[in-house]
Amino acid sequence: MKQEMGNTLCGARSRSQGSSPPRDTVSFIKAILDQDSYDQENRIPFHWEEDFRKFLIENKQGSVLNSLDFCLAVERLQLMIQDEQNIDSNKILQDSRAQRLEKMKEIGQIYLSVHSKQCISMNNQVMMEELCADLRDLTLEDMDDANAQLLAAKSDTRVWKSGLDLQYGRYLSTKPTQKLQAVLLSII
Q1: Which helix or strand (DSSP H or E) is residue 25 part of?
Q2: Domain count, the chain
Q3: Dihedral through CA 30, CA 31, CA 33, CA 38, nearest 10?
Q4: Number of helices (H) and strands (E), helices first, in the chain?
Q5: In a domain, 145, yes or no
Q6: Following DSSP, what letter does each residue of 46-74 receive, concatenated?
Q7: How does residue 5 score in pLDDT terms, banded at 50, 70 and 90?
């Protein structure tokens, strides 16, 4: 951190985060994951993620907030799968797969169980119930099928298109574009 003329500038934020949020939901999710690390203590907070979460809370969109967390959890699983492809040691690979198995079961408990406070809303309720049951009884041999089901659940209309994507579009409409900001600043 450095002080310049009374302003506090954070090097990480000024380099990695622009003055406007990512243009679409996919880019937004990718930007969050780019800021992520497996070591959550050293995670750099992504300004636009915090701002979007505040937007959802202020607009009473708790179900969309749960969908955001669900989508991020599923995408982090995909990163774990990619990382496993580069592991040479069988012991490390087994440990990673066991960790992924537990993470998948946790996702089922948190986001797909009707008894959870963070249960997501899905159009396909049958898929949600089956996936929840499958994740509860998941074994190492069934992880690929369960992963495909999680990706399908992430693409559910209520989770993505009429949920997260719609609300992110509304969020973006509240943010002025860089061109508009430049025009306003030139007037001032």
Answers
A1: helix 25-35
A2: 1
A3: 160
A4: 9, 2
A5: yes
A6: -HHHHHHHHHHHHTT-HHHHHHHHHHHHH
A7: very low
| 177: region left, alpha or beta (phi > 0 left; psi from -120 to 50 alpha) | beta
The residue range of the domain holding 93 is 2-15+22-175
Q: 158-163: long-range contacts at Cβ-Cβ below 8 A with a sequence spacing of 24 or more?
A: 158/67, 158/121, 158/122, 158/123, 159/67, 159/70, 159/71, 159/120, 159/121, 159/122, 160/25, 160/67, 160/71, 163/63, 163/64, 163/67, 163/121
Q: Retrieve residue 166's tokens.
A: 């719609």
Confidence of residue 42 (pLDDT cuts 50, 70, 90): low
62-84 vs 143-154: helix crossing angle, rounded to 10: 140
In a domain, 83, yes or no: yes
pLDDT in tens, 45-98: 578 899 999 999 999 999 999 999 999 999 999 999 999 998 889 999 999 999
In tens, the pLDDT along 10-30 reads: 333 333 445 678 889 999 999
What pLDDT is attached to residue 60?
Answer: 94
Is 47 a member of any domain? yes
Whether residue 148 contacts residue 142, with contact meaning beta carbons closer than 8 Å, is answered with no
Whether the pLDDT of residue 36 is over 90: the answer is no
Q: What pTM was computed for the model? A: 0.80
For residue 182, being part of any structural domain is answered with no
